[in-house]
Structures are given as C-alpha cells and as structure tokens.
TrEMBL record:
PANTHER family: BCDNA.GH03377 (PTHR43818:SF11). InterPro entries: Gfo/Idh/MocA-like_OxRdtase_N, Gfo/Idh/MocA_oxidrdct_glycsds, GFO_IDH_MocA-like_dom, NAD(P)-bd_dom_sf. Residues 159-303 form the GFO/IDH/MocA-like oxidoreductase domain. This is Predicted dehydrogenase. Keywords: Oxidoreductase. It comes from Streptomyces prasinopilosus. The keyword NADP does not apply.
Amino acid sequence: MAQPQQSDGADGTGAGKPPLRVGMVGYAFMGAAHSQGWRTAGRVFDLPMNPELAVVCGRDATAVRAAADRHGWTDTETDWRALVERDDVDLVDICTPGDSHAEIAVAALAAGKHVLCEKPLANTVAEAEAMVRAAEEARGRGRLAMVGFNYRRVPATALARRMVAEDRIGALRHVRVAYLQDWLVDPAFPLTWRLRREQAGSGSLGDLGAHIVDLAQYLAGERLAGVSALTETFVRQRPLPAAPAGGLTAVGSAGTGEVTVDDAALFTGRFASGALASFEATRYATGRKNALRIELNGERGSLAFDLERLNELSYHDATEPAAHAGFRRILVTEPDHPYLDAWWPPGHGLGYEHTFVHQARDLVHAVAEGRAPEPSFADGLQVQRVLAAVEDSARKNSVYTPIAA
C-alpha cells in the first residue's frame, strides 16, 4: 500500500499532519451521517491525523456522484471491490445493509485497510465470527477494526459510563431500556430492504435492539448472561416499492411482498452480576419518532438518559438525606464532560450528528496511536450473540436461553 503523504492543509485543517484517507461504501442515511463526522472532526478537535474524504462508493454512478458533491467526497466508485483495492484509501467505512458487512470488511482488512463498520456488525453470528477472525489477523499487521455504535458517543451517556465506573450508583440492580419508533405504523408503507431478513438480518431487533443491547452493556460495564424474549410481526404483507429491488417478486395480484423480520421485540435479561434488565424495541410505537430511554438503578443511586433530551443526564444519589434527595438534572455541556472541551460554551447543546463526529475523533486517535478502538468487532460479535439468543428464545418461548460464549 502506498505510504500516506503529509497533508497540505488546503482545507484549513491538518497542516503538517499525516492524512487518514477514508473510503466509504454506501451514501444514504448512515453515509450522510458518517460523512458529517469525517468532514467535521478535524475542524473541531485537534487530531493527530487529518481525515480526508477520498472516495465514496455506490452502485448508481449518477446518484453516488451527487452524494459525493453534496457531502464533500473527492472521488467515486460503483464497485466496492475497486474501492478496497485503491492505494489512496487507508480506512474503509461500511455504511451498507447488513448482508454485505462481512464480505466488505473481511476483504478490506485483507487488503491492509482499517475498517469502521456500521451496526449491527453482521446479519448472523457466523458472519460476525468471521469478521472478528479477520480483525484479529489484521491487528497483527497493524490494522484496526471498529463497529459503529454511535450512542456511546453522546456526551451524557459517556458521562453516565464514567459515573458507573466511579461507583457513583453502587452495585447494579436494574437496567431498563426502550427504543421506540413509529415509521411502520401505516400498513401501506412499502416493503423496503429493512423488512427483508436476507438483507437486514432482523427487524426492530437488529435495527434498534442492537443499539440498546450495546448501550446497556456499555453503561453497566458488564455483559448479559441470558435472555427471555417475545417478538411479533404486526403487518406481514406490504406493498412492493415502485421499482422492486433485491430479488423481490410480487405476491398475488395486489403487488405485495412478505415481511420476513420482526416489527417489535420485548425481552428481559440477566447480567453476569445478577442485575436484571428489560428491553423493548419497536417500530410501532405510535407517536414516537426516535425515543430511546435507559435507566440504571444501583444500591446507592440511579442514572437515567433520554435521547430526546440528549444534553441531559438524570442522577439520584441515594446516600443523601431523604428530606432533599431526588433525581436532579445534570446539564452535560461543561468542558470537563466527555467530548465537550472542543465545542461551545457551557449551556450550548449538541445534537445527534455530533455522535458521528465523536466517533470519527475516537477512531482517528486509535489509528494514530495503534490502539485497539472501542467498540471492537469482538464487542459487535457479543451483541450479535445476544440478538441471536433473543430470536432463539422468542422461537421457543422459553423462560431462559443461555448465550453461547
């Protein structure tokens, strides 16, 4: 692979710093969010390397060129294999549906690239295991791999993790978390790739459940040991899109196709310490657009976070006298809060897009320092095992399903 040249800082950032040349596969919702992260990180944080938006890939040449122009990418490709082999790409960022994650990631690591892969890591445990093996082999050659669970990068959740690690709530007793959306409530909504198992792997479970499983384990600082689950698909036939893709075929004269993933997942879990957890992930919570809420109860206190108020963290210190104890709001905008020393004065809040800026920042530092980034592919595999156990439990309607190590 060609050696990186020093950046000339032509865009006003990174002068004299080695570049980190990014090639991104996929340019839709997550591609736009990742583009924002790469484009902004070096303008906000003092990074050891200068991220460069080298090339973006998509199958439609006209559409990918338009996306490149809109988001600031220098060049385009229509075949991810060509992108992976380019000498002017140091890191491959995978923002495609789950059915292609494993193939692209394994090929990119074998080609000597660092890899960032969107969540969930893969569609199956076997695919995720193959990705972990590839990442471990690449680590020996100095190449790093990270999975993109961006909600770890909300300053308030990072502060919550710090407080749990500092033993501010004591031994953990309960975790309860819900991720609620409503974009599938209308039965006339078309059959997109997210509703087909062969492309998405699962429905709300992989799309939303992966986030809340990772966030719960991250904040708790420990892993789930077992789960008991229910899943449901409320609308099983949906209209085909105007231009069917992905091998979909009309079913009957109505032009509909089968929904092959879950619409909602509800499950309980037990952490290794014995703490109990409850999870809800649904795309049928009428009126809820992107509502993620998590609460942790410990022997000496509690923490609660609501994504719709993402600059705030609620904290209850149970060691205070009952006469004036209770939940209090921490406005997470101080410069000594996670990530915030580089942003605005206290009281000036951040938003969803900043999580991707923080993700890019953390990965650039890891690459520059040769340090294993978090969450790793191994972390992504562990979440995949939890998702598989949830599906297995839902099929069996069992009381308790162990998670394989």
